Structures are given as C-alpha cells and as structure tokens.
Amino acid sequence: MAGLLNILLVAEESAGIRLLRALLRTEHRIVAVMTSTTGPSKTSSMASVATRAGLDIWPPSRVRDPALARELRAAGVDLILNAHSLYLIHEEVLRAPSIAAFNLHPGPLPRYSGLNCPSWAIYRAERTYGVTVHRMSPRIDAGPIAYQTTFDIDEAATGLTLTAKCVSVGVPLMRQLVEVAARDPAAIPAIEQDVGQRKYFGREVPRNGALIWSESASQIARFVRAFDYYPFASPWGHPQALYEGQHIGVVKAVQTRAKTGTPPGTLRRGPSGIMEVAAADEWLALHLVHAGGRHIRPDQLLRDGTRLEDGTKT
C-alpha cells in the first residue's frame, strides 16, 4: 500500500454498514463515523457496528457546521466518504480533506440525481439502472464522476431490492476509490457531468401515491413495487386506495396474467384463495395491505364482490 489514509465516514443504513466493514478490513484509519444513534434499528445498527469497532461516533448534523472543517484539517483527514446520509455537507467541510469528499449515490448520474431514485426508476419503467461514486460539490449530486456501474433491473424489483442492488454494486466502487486514493490521488477519475442530461428528483411522490384501477395490471404492479420497501418504512409511504370510505395502503400486488372484463377495482377471491382486484386488463393478486396503522392480509379486510376505489391525488 502506497500510503495510509485518514478517513471520515458519514453514513447510514446498510450501505454505511457494508462500507464501514470494508474499511475495517484495511489498514486505513477511520477518524470518526458520523451516523445516527437513535431511530429505527436499520440506522442505529450502523452506530452499533462503529461502537463495537471502538470508533468515535459524531452527530451527523455536524456536517452542516463550517467549524467542523478546522477539526478535520487538524486531524489530517484525507477523504470524506458519504453513503446514504441525507445531511447537506457545508461547503467549507467539503474543502477540508486533503484529497476530496466523495458520495455513493444510488443512481446513474446525471440522469437520476436527488432523492428516492431507485423508486423513480421503477416507476418510470427503466430497464437498466446504475450506481455512481462522485466528488461532492455544493450542488447536490453534481460533482465529477469517479466511478459508475450500470446493470439490468429485475422485472420484479422493488424499491428495497433495487436499493440493495445499488449497495452491493456500489460498495466495491468505494473500495476501488480508496485503493486508488492511497496509491495516487491524482489518478482518481474526474468526469464532468453532462448538465443537459441532469434530472433531479425531490421529495415529491408520484400522484401523491394514488392508485388508479383503470390502468393496466402491469402499470399498477410497477407503481406498487416502486413504493415497496417492506418490511422497512417506505420514503413514499404506501400506494393509496379507498375501501368503503377508508384509506388503505397496498403494500404488495402481483400480476396474475388472468384476463378480466370486470369493472376496474372489483374484488374477488382468486382461484388460489388470495384476494384479487381487477385492473383494466387483468386481475392483480393482493398479498399485503396496510390499514389502521398495521400490515394485514387482504382477506382480513376486503370482501369478495366489493370494490376498491381509486386513491385521492390531493
């Protein structure tokens, strides 16, 4: 190894855990881990891994404080590595490391920048997708690209499984970045993004999550899969329908390929005993819904011969 690096890791969730474990297998020094220590287990476990490794844990909100830059320079930080942390890092902090700050982005830049990009890719019926490691700049997801990999999207992909694919493909790219930085920082690629291809996604949710039963079965199933992070909370919530005046969320719905001429939204108990709903062209099998603050089997709520109404868009 040409040189040992001092690394600040800013990370959450499974991406952060896998990246931290990869770094722990090297001889590089992790100056600190900036991660949440409260909240759901999928984020607090990041702190648990860091604690077991004897690493210092700093509040992730500190990345917004320009005073952190002085501390990082004093510690001789060479790299800031960011993975799935949503805090915006102050410009002064981005300039503090001797090499640069890099982000693992779950999407192919510049076409998919911003938030919840795996969900947007499924919703937009993309067939290929990707993950990007890029230099961080004051503008979100806009810095030069160091490494990028593309791959096919599985036809049954959900928001969760596509995000997991990005992690499994992306962490090796971050390892590659660290290896190159240790040998020769000048050899790290820096490919400027084509701003004409840039598409930024914010916190908006398609149609505010409203299901429309007059769409085709494939469209509805894809809509549901884009929202699906079960058993974790979805950043978009659940796709919404109305049942006898009650809002319900559809968590899992699968195409049956069985044709129907029944009015869209009609419910029946299918041949396998699973509740099904009519789309414009086929029956959809409903495997899980959300009502009354909990996940339940559809047959615990829905009745044969009744109807699901479209969700409300406002």
Strand-helix topology:
Layout: E1 6-11, H1 13-24, E2 29-34, H2 41-52, E3 57-58, H3 68-74, E4 79-83, H4 91-94, E5 100-105, E6 113-114, H5 117-123, E7 128-135, E8 145-152, H6 159-183, E9 200-201, H7 217-227, E10 240-243, E11 246-259, E12 267-269, E13 275-278, E14 282-291, E15 294-296, E16 309-310
Parallel strand pairs: 1-2, 1-4, 2-3, 4-5, 6-9
Antiparallel strand pairs: 5-7, 7-8, 10-11, 10-16, 11-14, 12-13, 13-14, 14-15
Helix pairs in contact: 1-2, 1-6, 5-7
Description of the molecule:
- The chain has helices at 13-24, 41-52, 68-74, 91-94, 117-123, 159-183, 217-227; strands at 6-11, 29-34, 57-58, 79-83, 100-105, 113-114, 128-135, 145-152, 200-201, 240-243, 246-259, 267-269, 275-278, 282-291, 294-296, 309-310.
- The chain is an alpha/beta fold and 314 residues long.
- The chain folds into two domains: 6-201, Formyl transferase, N-terminal domain (Rossmann fold); 206-310, Roll (Methionyl-tRNA Fmet Formyltransferase, Chain A, domain 2).
- The strands form three sheets. The chain has a seven-stranded mixed β-sheet. Strands 10, 11, 12, 13, 14, 15 and 16 form a seven-stranded antiparallel β-sheet that branches. A two-stranded parallel ribbon has the order 6-9.
- A hairpin with a 2-residue loop joins strand 10 (240-243) and strand 11.
- It is elongated and about 70 Å long.
- The mean pLDDT is 95.
